[in-house]
Amino acid sequence: MKIDENTTPLLTVDHLKQYFKVSGSFTVKAVEDVSFKIYPGETYGLVGESGSGKSTIGRSIIRLYDPTAGEIQFNGLDISGKMSKSDSQTLRTQMQMIFQDPIASLDPRMTVRDIIAEGLVIQGERNKQVIDDKVNEMLELVGLVREHATRYPHEFSGGQRQRIGIARALIVQPQMVIADE
Known about the structure:
Strand content: 15-25%
C-alpha cells in the first residue's frame, strides 16, 4: 500500500518500552525501544519469534498494560500516559483487540449474544431489537449462524470461539483492530 506523505498515521508508537518488575532485584524487559506507524486502511504485521514481545506490544497499545516508557499516539491522541476517563472511553470504542486464546477471553457464564453485544451495551445501546440485529449480522459475517447466539463458549470449537472474539471486536466498528495471533 502506497502511503501519501501527507497522510496522518492512525497509530504512532515511538520508543516503546515495557518492563515487568518480577522481584526487588529482577525486571523483565519484555519490549525494548520499539517504534512504528500504522496508517488508515493499512494492514500491519508485527512478526517475531515466540517470546519476542508481540503480544505485549499489542496489550500496551490497547492500554491493558501501562507502558514503561515511550509514546503512543492514536488518532492524534496521546495514549501513552495517564488518560482521562473520556479519552479512555474513546480509545475503547475506536480500538479493539482479538485475543490469541479465545477461551480465556470469553466469559463462560455469558451467552454468545451477550458476549458480542457487550460493547454495544457499554456504548449505550439499549434497544434489544437493534442489539439482536447487529449481533446476528456479526455472527453471519464471521461464518456462524444466528442460532449460535443462545449458546455458551464451551459449546464451540477453538476456531468458532475465535470467530466469536472477532465478532465481539468488530461489532463496535472500531477504527483499529489488534489481532493477537
